[in-house]
Design a protein that fits this description.
By secondary structure, the protein is mainly α. It is about 70% helix and about 5% strand. The protein is built from 13 helices and two strands, in the order αααααααααββαααα. Strands 1-2 form a two-stranded antiparallel sheet. Helix 3 runs parallel beside helix 9 and helix 12 packs across helix 13. The protein is globular. The N and C termini lie far apart (about 80 Å).
């Protein structure tokens, strides 16, 4: 009986150490390993199908500024707002946009990223710049992969893009979380460089990773609109808005080439 108990304990300890070592081996510890893990993941492919179209919707919402030829004025007026939400909202309204609609679209992107962090918690060990590099490099690898699953993913992304621009609608006639979707002829291959630049590695990029990773570490499963507004202010929405205007301009030029 005693020997059996000792044998059981040894087996239990062996299993524990085996699983512990296996977990340590499986957890990515470098950016390159993280990229490899993501690109091999179906979850990341599903993320890409939603994240890219949502990011395009957010950018294209700001195309109104480009259409009005008011990029410089829009940026200058945003810089005078001191980051105050009411002042930013007034500038958006002046350019026939809605700050609330912009936040609705941003909220979709925020939740795409938050779900990605919960599905791949190893990402939270990296800093903001590292996560951005991993994200962009993983998308780069996946979208240029010859793997059949990624080819299908890319086809779905092009279909989901819907080749879109957006414009605001009155509250009584809202669609797609507050925006109307219109078709343009563009594919992910054509706008990939635009997307990489827009994601950015500095404070001027669209993606506010630091705040979202903090929410993920705190166990928050979904970001409400209020959280997206807080994240926008924390990350510096003025810089992100400028990046969005430039992104929408880049998309516009690609769509007419």
């Amino acid at each position: 009986m005693k020997k059996s108990m000792i044998l059981f304990c040894l087996l239990a300890l062996t299993s524990f150490f085996f699983l512990s070592c296996k977990k340590k081996i499986a957890d990515p510890i470098t950016e390159e390993q993280a990229v490899a893990t993501l690109t091999d993941s179906k979850d990341f492919q599903d993320f890409s199908k939603k994240f890219i179209p949502d990011l395009l919707l957010l950018a294209n919402y700001h195309r109104q500024v480009k259409d009005q030829g008011g990029r410089v004025s829009f940026i200058n007026e945003l810089k005078l707002t001191n980051g105050e939400e009411a002042n930013i909202a007034a500038v958006y309204e002046k350019f026939s946009l809605s700050y609330e609609d912009a936040m609705l679209l941003k909220n979709r992107v925020d939740n795409d990223l938050l779900r990605l962090f919960h599905q791949n918690p190893f990402l939270l060990q990296f800093d903001e710049a590292g996560i951005k590099r991993i994200l962009i490099n993983s998308l780069q690898e996946g979208l240029h992969s010859a793997d059949l699953s990624w080819i299908r993913t890319k086809e779905e992304i092009n279909q989901a893009i819907g080749q879109t621009t957006v414009s605001s609608l009155p509250q009584s006639n809202r669609q797609t979380n507050g925006v109307r979707v219109n078709k343009i002829g563009i594919t992910i291959d054509e706008i990939w460089e635009c997307l990489k630049d827009a994601a950015g590695f500095g404070s001027g990029g669209i993606l506010g990773i630091a705040g979202l990773s903090r929410l993920a570490k705190d166990g928050i499963q979904e970001a409400v609109i209020g959280a997206s507004k807080w994240l926008a202010k924390r990350a510096g929405w003025i810089g992100a808005a400028i990046a969005l205007v430039d992104f929408s301009s880049c998309l516009y030029h690609e769509s007419i080439d």
